[in-house]
From TrEMBL:
Species this chain originates from: Propionivibrio dicarboxylicus
Name of the protein this chain belongs to: Sugar phosphate isomerase/epimerase
Entry-linked PANTHER family: BLL3656 PROTEIN, HYDROXYPYRUVATE ISOMERASE
UniProt entry tagged with the keyword Isomerase: yes
Domain Xylose isomerase-like TIM barrel: 23-242
Any one GO molecular function term: isomerase activity
Amino acid sequence: MAYQYSLAHLTALGCPPPELAYVAARAGYDFFSPRLIYMGLPGEPNYALADNPEMLRQTKRAMASTGIRVHDIELARIYDDMHPTKYLPAMEVAAELGAKAVLSSVWTTNLDYATEKFAEVCDLARPFGFTVDLEFVPIAGINNLAGAAKMLRDVNRSNAGLMIDMHHFHRSHDNPEDLDRLPREWFHFAHLCDAQGEIPSDRDEFIRIMRGERLYVGEGGIDIANILKRIPSSIISIELPHLARAQEFGFAEHAFRCLESAKHYVKEHLPESLQPKLHGAA
């Protein structure tokens, strides 16, 4: 079973969802993964389609004309003093668009509180048929594989999952072999990119690379093949922000190069004998 690919919004964050759909379709992706939950970060566009009916209509038209599908939406963050029901409008729109998953991450160090709120997000997502997939981020409250696995066990929700991002996995000094010991049903999709092998010690530099200078697959020092072959999912979402390349090539060409490098890497480094038994294809 071949991998299927989604274009994560951070790869081309300057594209509103309708344009992202066209870019993904023209580049050859199977899905796109729009950022429909506005986070209020400095300089980040607001693509909350629940609050923008015209952009929602345009997104539906783009999907209908190209055949591209939505895989997951983001980002249902868990943070102090949050109210999970604020994510309901985005979930309702995601259901209209046929999405399969909601991406989440934890940005509080109060882990008892985070566990409670993550469970609530899972419960809200269940009637829509969504999984809620937890992404650990090295600078966040849940910052490594062990922390994410503990939360999923504590939450104990059937629609809770684990989303492995290649950049974050490498930067957290995690061991690919540890993935083998986790429940197979946790894995629904993964984020793919590459990055320099050396891990920055300066937090600002770390964030700069994470948000704007990840590398095409095979260019960096991450042992991507050893991670991917342990993730039993056929869906790969390419999250590869590189601001300079996007400016030089344009979003469409950058997205195309992301996909082409990923496919080439998989062909060269993951022959069928090394690929996991895949599940989750649409």
